[in-house]
Design goal:
This protein is α/β, with parallel strands linked by helices. It has 3 domains: 184 residues; 88 residues, Diaminopimelate Epimerase, Chain A, domain 1; 70 residues. It is built from 14 helices and 16 strands. The chain has a 6-stranded mixed β-sheet with strand order 6-7-8-9-11-10. It has a 5-stranded parallel β-sheet with strand order 2-1-3-4-5, sandwiched between helices. Helix 1 links the parallel strand 1 and strand 2. Helix 1 packs antiparallel against helix 5 and helix 2 runs parallel beside helix 3.
Length: 394
């Protein structure tokens, strides 16, 4: 017999689907939250069942279970842990641990892709195009490569996972992967996914209006309270507000925190790790403890939401050769303009000593320090008129 303990998201459940394709009714599967895995492992170890081959995918155990699993393996127990998170690399010290963040070609791994390779190499599963395509969609979504490659099928697969129950998702995928030569979405799935896309778009627009900016440590965080669509929120708000180093998504109901970033200079797995969590460089999470609550909830609760940039401008646009105008909550006006290869800053018609090598650097300064927003065309034109009058007087 086989037993699989895996995560309860798309990545983890996809490992379960592969296990059922390989072992059929001989595998017992339990999907767990990050915190729930250690309880499952402890219960398994209490039974001392050496006849069952234990797989752990996409999750890591705590230090106590790590020691006990090694003893279990040394005493003849069958065990294999497969993961792809940097925080789990120390499991490679064990004969039963296999953790690879990226492959030889330089692409990021997922637990699903690693488990698929393992099952094929061990002769448990015969590869076919439909399975390979499914695994690649999961890998690209989990590693965020889908956005770089504009592979929206990967995003839609994740959306479908959350639209149906785990049991229904498993049943649909197992049938499709067994019977079809290539992976596809059926017509009904396409319709509900189109409806879901519209719903997500509306949800993101609403949550963007609630976004808070808070400097925590060395980073500027965007904080939003939300219970749904964490990946989509983090991605879209991050692109809309690139001056923020990362987006922190607070789920008060589950007392969980999600961290997302679009930047290469920020590793949110390290930020989550400071609070006992973990994950990927661009997507991670943790449980809400007292420190997390103080920084991301208590301190940010009285902050005012960030104003959105004007979206329908024709003249006051970012990087404009005539300059770009911003306003702040204190009613100060910030004018960015280019002189030769340098971007300069005026505050309320007065020159400042600040200079920047690029427009994005200049905008980051204004948005970080003044929480400013791009004003509408009419205010921009009025500013230019006042600027001309001001220059004539001086």
């Amino acid at each position: 017999m086989y037993k699989l303990l895996s995560h309860n998201d798309l990545e983890g459940v996809s490992c379960g689907i592969l296990a059922k394709l390989a072992f059929g009714k001989q595998v017992n599967i339990r999907y767990n939250s990050v915190g729930g895995l250690d309880r499952e492992v402890a219960w398994f170890l209490e039974k001392k069942d050496k006849d069952t081959f234990l797989f752990i995918t996409d999750l890591s155990v705590n230090e106590e279970n790590e020691k006990q699993l090694d003893l279990f393996h040394q005493n003849g127990g069958n065990l294999q842990l497969i993961d792809h998170h940097k925080t789990a690399l120390h499991f490679n010290e064990y004969a039963w641990g296999y953790v690879e963040v990226s492959n030889e070609a330089g692409y990021l791994n997922s637990a699903t892709s690693l488990f698929y390779e393992y099952l094929v190499q061990q002769g448990y599963l015969t590869p076919k195009p439909a399975i390979t395509e499914f695994v690649e969609l999961v890998r690209q979504y989990d590693t965020w490569e889908w956005e770089i490659n504009e592979n929206y099928e990967a995003q839609r697969l994740n959306a479908l996972f959350y639209l149906v129950s785990i049991d229904e998702f498993e049943e649909k995928m197992l049938e499709r992967l067994r019977e079809s030569e290539h992976f596809y979405f059926d017509e009904f799935e396409k319709k509900i996914l189109d409806m879901e896309d519209d719903k997500i778009e509306r949800y993101i627009r609403r949550k963007r209006r609630e976004l808070l900016q808070h400097k925590i440590g060395d980073y500027y965080a965007g904080i939003v309270f939300a219970e749904s669509y964490h990946s989509e929120l983090g991605n879209e708000i991050g692109k809309d507000c690139p001056h923020l180093d990362y987006i922190a998504i607070v789920n008060m109901g589950s007392r969980r925190m999600g961290f997302r970033t679009i930047h290469d200079h920020v590793d949110v797995s390290k930020i989550a790790g400071e609070y006992g969590g973990g994950g990927h460089a661009k997507a991670s999470g943790c449980t809400m403890n007292d420190t997390v609550y103080k920084s991301y909830v208590q301190e940010s609760f009285l902050l005012e939401p960030l104003r959105e940039d004007a979206r329908r401008n024709r003249y006051n646009i970012k990087g404009n050769s005539f300059g770009t105008l911003y306003s702040s909550k204190a009613d100060s006006l910030y004018f960015l303009y280019q002189l030769n290869d340098t971007w300069l800053l005026e505050e309320n018609h007065e020159k400042t000593s600040f200079s920047f090598s690029s427009f994005s650097e200049a905008e980051n300064h204004v948005k970080r320090n003044a929480e400013a927003w791009l004003v509408r065309d009419d205010q921009f034109v009025q500013y230019l008129i006042e600027k001309i009058q001001h220059n004539k007087r001086t």
